[in-house]
Amino acid sequence: MDFFASGLPLVTEETSSGEAASEEDDEVVAMIKELLDSRIRPTVQEDGGDVIYKGFEDGIVQLKLQGSCTSCPSSIITLKNGIQNMLQFYIPEVEGVEQVMDDESEEKEANSP
Fold it and tell me: What would the mean pLDDT of 86-109 be, rounded to a whole number?
């Protein structure tokens, strides 16, 4: 409470030169996250899964599927058709969507016969 009573600004205008150069990317990432949170994640959560944003690079949104959607045989189709189409419709900078795995998941798949 002392901070709020001090009258100091909540946000400072200081940014590094790297952040200023990627301002457009930051806006795209913010739009991607907003769309994931407001439209995509609630639908996936209804089926017992979740979608976690992992990154945006060269027009490709990287997402991790969690929960029941990872074991669903149609999860890649859902990812490509449903999520990719919605993101591309609202955000023209999105060229595609790919699923990423955690290191643990990748190791288990690599070690399984």
Answer: 78
